[in-house]
């Protein structure tokens, strides 16, 4: 899977129909990373439901998503970002969040050689 989709966060992130494509790509990439960690390290990480993006309980989604990042970064020895705080109505903040998020997925994929 190409992680390029993760850099393309739709405008009006939480309300956009295009958010489904982003959350699907994000979830699929997390699944690939979890599988690679299990294959290479013998560690089975927890999975959390992060697709589809919810219309309510955004806080719960952000914390479940953060758990995925904390778990993978812990195994891989990577420094991570805090993805739990995002004002989805601020497109500049969303774009910055998306860039950090993409870079973290890229770092995990490089560390795993996938």
Helix and strand topology:
Elements: H1 19-41, H2 58-76, H3 91-112
Helix pairs in contact: 1-2, 1-3, 2-3
Largest sheet, in brief, is:
none
Distance between the termini: 10 Å
- The total of beta strands comes to 0
Low-confidence stretches: none
Describe the structure.
By secondary structure, the protein is mainly α. It has one domain. The chain has helices spanning 19-41, 58-76, 91-112. The longest helix has 23 residues, at 19-41. It is globular, with a radius of gyration of 13 Å. The mean pLDDT is 91.
Characterize this entry briefly.
The protein is mainly α. 56% of the residues lie in helices and 0% in strands.
Spell out the key features of this protein.
single chain, 114 residues, mainly alpha, 3 helices, 0% strand
């Amino acid at each position: 899977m190409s992680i390029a989709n993760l850099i393309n966060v739709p405008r009006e992130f939480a309300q956009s129909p295009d958010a489904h494509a982003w959350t699907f790509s994000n979830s699929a990439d997390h699944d690939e990373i979890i599988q690679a960690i299990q294959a290479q390290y013998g560690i089975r990480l927890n999975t959390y439901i992060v697709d589809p993006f919810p219309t309510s309980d955004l806080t719960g989604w952000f914390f479940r998503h953060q758990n995925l990042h904390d778990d993978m970064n812990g195994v891989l020895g990577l420094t991570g970002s805090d993805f739990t705080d995002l004002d989805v109505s601020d497109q500049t903040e969303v774009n910055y969040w998306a860039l950090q998020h993409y870079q973290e997925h890229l770092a995990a994929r490089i560390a795993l050689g996938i």
